[in-house]
Design goal:
Layout lengths: L3 H35 L5 H8 L2 E5 H8 L3 H15 L2 E4 L4 E4 L3 H8 L8 H8 L1
Antiparallel strand pairs: 1-3, 2-3
Helix pairs in contact: 1-5, 3-4
Length: about 130
């Protein structure tokens, strides 16, 4: 039988390994995240603006929050609404709401596939 001290050491070691694996997975997923989000956002400011879209802020207020001209925000909103359909108008006062979470945008930006499924390839070759 293991002693309590050995169990504790093993538990701590496993926790460290899980944390290391989590960090490794983050690194591996970066290309997938970048590809998915770059379809909709050309930079960090656009991403920030999208994240602020909860239906309560107008373009001028978003502009003040992230330090981008109001007309730039309006152009982004127009593109997101008409080209991508990732936002929706809220009321008649120029406010918008994001329609998708970041995770959903990543999946959609990768054409619905986040990770390649090798089993699909195998079944297609039979």
């Amino acid at each position: 039988m293991r002693e309590v001290g050995q169990e504790k050491d093993l538990t701590l070691e496993l926790i460290k390994e899980i944390r290391d694996m989590k960090e490794y997975l983050k690194i591996l997923s970066l290309p997938v995240i970048e590809k998915g989000l770059s379809k909709y956002f050309s930079g960090h400011k656009q991403f920030q603006a999208y994240m602020l879209l909860d239906g309560s802020l107008s373009a001028p207020k978003i502009s003040n929050h992230i330090g981008v001209h109001e007309n730039t925000i309006k152009n982004w909103l127009k593109k997101w609404l008409t080209t991508f359909g990732i936002v929706e108008k809220v009321g008649k006062q120029g406010k918008f709401n994001k329609k998708y979470t970041i995770y959903e945008l990543i999946i959609m930006g990768n054409d619905g596939w986040v990770f390649k499924d090798d089993s699909m390839e195998e079944s297609n070759n039979e």
